[in-house]
Amino acid sequence: MEERGFIYSIEALRKEDNDLVGKKCANLGELARIGVMVPQGFAICVGAWERFVQVTGIGRAMKRLFEEEAGLDTPSKGQRMSQAMRELIEAQDLPDEIGQAIKSSYRELCRKAGVSQLSVAVRSAGAVSMPGAMETYLNIRGEDEVLKKVLRVWSSAYTYRAMLYRHHQHLSVDYAPIGVAVLQLVDAKSAGVLMTANPTSGNTAEMIIESNWGLGESVVSGVMNPDRFSVAKDGLTISSRVVNRKMKRVIPKEGGAELVDTPVELQETSSLTDDEVRELAKAGCRIESHFGGPTDIEWAYDAGTSCPESLYFLQARPMKPLPKYRDAVDKILDMMLR
Amino acid sequence: MAFDWPIYEFDEETDLKHYKAWVLGTQWYPPPLVPLFVDLHFTHGKYGMQYAPEMLSDPKTKGWDWRLMKGGWYLSVIETTEEEKKQREPAWREKMRKILENPRAIWENYKPALREKLHAFLGFDYSGASDIDLVNHWLEVWNFNKYVQEAHFYPMYALGQGNITFRRLLKQLLNITPADPLYSELHSGFENEYTKIIEKMSTISDLAIDLDLQGTFKNSSPDELLNNLSKSENGRKWIGHFNAFVKEHGFMRRRGEELCTPTWWEDKELPLYDIQRFVTAGKGIRSVEMKPKLVERRKALEEELLEKVPPEEREMFQKLMACSQASSVFSEEHTLYVEMMGFSSVRLTAMEFGRRFTARGIMDDPEDVMYLHHDEILHGGIIQERCNLKKLTNKRKAEYQGYRKLEGTLPMVLGDPSKIGELVDADVIFAVNAAPPIARPEEVGATLVGCAGAPGVAEGTAMVCMGEEEMDKVVPGVILVTPATTASWTPVFNIVKAVVTDGGGYLTHALIVAREFGIPAVVGTQEATQKIKSGQRIKVDGNLCRVWVLD
pLDDT (tens digit, 9 = 90+) per residue, A150-163? Predict the structure, then answer.
């Protein structure tokens, strides 16, 4: 494994590195290993956060905040505590050994991409995945911006909802070491999620794809009604395709990304071609068989290249337990008994 | 009483306590039944009726129970308890799942073994066999008919549930009822070995026309037809084809369902009657000629309907449709194996005993063997002249003849008729016999209302036939009115305009065959043969299940 103290290259990571770099990074490493495309990037390990706490000495202050402001039971108290914690963290400087390592890795990323100020996404990677609980920063350019966002990602482990989530999961609330992924931003033509089983019916014979124009955040956050495709695993045939009216999409803007109106001519156009759907499904089968069960996957089609080279995977994690599937035969039998 | 089987005799006290109602089984075997047939039927048939739901672990039914009353066969359903329902359901789901994945297989899998064994039985050298060979043959044939009934009822139960459920789905999704012509089109145009024989009959009839023999057929009485044909070269050529046809399919019988009527091998004038009617009617009027069109129409319709089914219901629709269609094919085809080949193997063996018993003076007439139980035949077969079967046969013959006088007077239902709906709900196959009537005739201004119909409307002259003995009265173009029809009536469906029956339910033979032949039918009218007279003009509306006398 290529190690630079606190930094690991994504391709070098494996599932077993979960505790080292967080789940998102470890799973991306696995994806790279089975040969599906993931963005170039690196992981900042959980140890970096621990080193940060140690060097800055904020551990005691954090503990005190917890004791003084104790209680997540009311939103007002919880919000207050969260804000204090985040301010405390973000007010610190990154220790030099960490800052330099990140900067040098970013520069190398730029060099490989042949771009001086490469646009990246800075994402949280908890050892336990907490979907949507922590922050992600898109379209970040320049070393100093990246460092700032790393601090922000760390502090986002103390958003009120992240703490509440840990509380409900019986995890430690005041101690939340997380990894950070810094990945080249995929300039997505369209993006979304792929579930290798139907999460509603529990049918494991079909995959569900949800897709929108632009970056995948619009689909993940659920702000709009995405296009929806079902693909039968057997033969990879598209068994249903629903093209919704997609009013909004997320596109990069200076220093971040924003939700904007979708051009009218694109709103009712399918955000994926049949070939793109099938290509996704094909990869979905490989990923699922590698992960050994139904998998929830984030993906993006790059605007600059064409299918299949344009397909990138941004995240993969096991799906939540599925409902017991009732197939056509079950329904027939139910009807016979009525 | 009950041909010396007190155990089968209907007992008002216990049988109405344990069962909701009993329905007269007119559909296959019009009363009265002969003792040997009762024995075969109550030994193996009843076993099969209970074997099937047991093997399927059917949650709702344990099959039927049967009783005899005045020579009539009455049926009821053995319903399961709530606890049994729960217990049986998981295994039933597993078994039905396999069946639904490939519904055609369930019956097809039985056929090779049936075919092989039954052909061997039928090819037995009856007259040349020693007494001991014949005894052994009797035991073998008798026992094998148990397997025949397993093959009969297991697919019937499994597929019948698919058929009934498909009707509900059709109604629910597309508002198509079984009376709708579309329902029939979806279930027609399948290969089945039984109708193939009728098709061959049709081909042989065409051959007679092509050989310029139509005149001879028209101008000869049935008993002199063969003789007249043998006078010309073309006639002799035709007889050659006819003989080959009878040789191959001679296990067929008129009243295929019972044991008393001869096989074609025993009386080849039987198929000749039908052929004579086909030839006289000429080409182009027979329904089997429609067959290729039916296949085409069905396939187009399947696609058309599937398009209208919501995508998430399509797989379910397709699977149920396949099951329902398999049920339809089975319904017609099993008769060939079970009642024609299976029962004929019993009849031919019994009749050989009958001839030997008569020759040895222990019975008066070979046909009297029909008044014996199967073990009595065995007894007689082994000890021969050391026993006297006459006492038994004469006593039971008298009992049988007493029942014959009651023909048409047996009640259709014993117990509470309003409970029949519940029995049909518990046991969908029971719908073969009975279905709750749709409406009362006076409510809708019709002469008669049936409980189910084959689609289409026809007007014509009624021909009332009280039984198979009168089948020969049927001439092309009439509307057949009869208590019930059985498989042996199938050729008649080829030439009549429509069919009306007293008895019947959703799965009745008459309906299935009428649909296959594309003619309207109304079944379960209860009193068609009483309210309609031969020669009256009547109108039959199979879509509405109504019949009007127009004169």
Answer: 999 999 888 888 88
Please, which residues 275-314 of chain B have a Cβ atom closer than 8 Å to chain A?
311
| CATH classification at residue A204 | 3.30.470.20
For residues A254 and A143, state if they share a domain: no
d(CA B499, CA B482): 8
Q: Are residues A269 and A192 in the same domain?
A: yes
The answer to whether residue A2 scores a pLDDT higher than 50 is no
When pLDDT is averaged across residues B83-109 and rounded to a whole number, the result is 96
Please report which confidence band the pLDDT of residue B537 belongs to, taking 50, 70 and 90 as the band edges: very high
Residue A240, min C-alpha distance to chain B (Å):
8
The pair phi, psi for residue B436, each rounded to 5°, is -60, 135
Task: Quickly state the pLDDT bin for B506 (edges 50, 70, 90).
Answer: low
Q: How far is A152 from chain B (nearest CA, A)?
A: 45
**Interface predicted TM-score (ipTM):** 0.77
Q: Which amino acid is at A58?
A: I
Single-letter residue type at B14: T
B278-282, B359-363, B519-523 — most confident range: B359-363
SS3 label, residue A113:
helix
A85 CA: distance to closest CA in chain B (Å): 50
Is the distance from CB of A284 to CB of A198 less than 8 angstroms?
no
Comparing alpha-carbon positions, the chain A residue that sits nearest to B92 is A333
Residue ranges making up the domain that contains B209? 193-291
Number of Cβ within a 10 Å radius of residue A166: 22
Tens-place pLDDT, residues B182-192? 888 888 888 88
Yes or no, beta carbons of A329 and B169 under 8 Å apart: no
Question: Is B526 inside any structural domain?
Answer: yes
- Residue range A14-32, pLDDT digits in tens: 988 988 898 889 999 999 9
All residues of chain B having their beta carbon less than 8 Å from the beta carbon of residue A327 are 315
CA distance A239 to B292: 33
Domain that includes residue A33, residue range = 7-184
Q: What domain count does chain B have?
A: 3
Could you say which of B92, B311, B320 has the minimum Cβ distance to residue A332? Answer: B320
A313/A217 same-domain check: yes
CA–CA dist B107, B236 (Å, integer): 40
